[in-house]
Write a structure and sequence with these properties.
Helix content is about 5%, strand content about 40%. The chain has 1 helix and 8 strands. A hairpin with a 2-residue loop joins strand 1 and strand 2. The protein is globular and about 40 Å long.
Length: about 100
């Protein structure tokens, strides 16, 4: 997961883009649809949240964010909201040779 900043601090986040990009914390990934133009393939999965003991469904394209205060707990942000409110943190690390 990469680090992003927003108005309340920093978080680690990754976009759910299966089958190739499944973020940490996503479990039970399901493939639906037939893979045709009329019935395209679609994916969903589940995450454990801090708001309830139940798992929450995450859909393709949504962002999975790890709760800073609760290890192994996550929340979901829609792509359009994420792009508007979060900025990727790019560190200027020195390479030691």
């Amino acid at each position: 997961m990469a680090k992003y900043k927003y108005e309340f601090g920093e978080v680690e986040a990754e976009q759910f883009l299966p089958p190739h990009q499944i973020p940490k914390g996503v479990i039970n990934v399901y493939q639906m649809g037939g893979g045709t133009e009329d019935n395209p393939t679609w994916y969903s999965g589940e995450i454990n949240t801090t708001t309830s003991e139940k798992r929450q469904r995450v859909s393709q394209g949504e962002w999975v964010i790890e709760e800073p205060e609760h290890q192994e707990k996550y929340y979901i942000v829609l792509d359009e909201v994420f792009k508007r409110k979060y900025q990727k943190i790019i560190s200027d690390m020195l390479t030691i040779e």
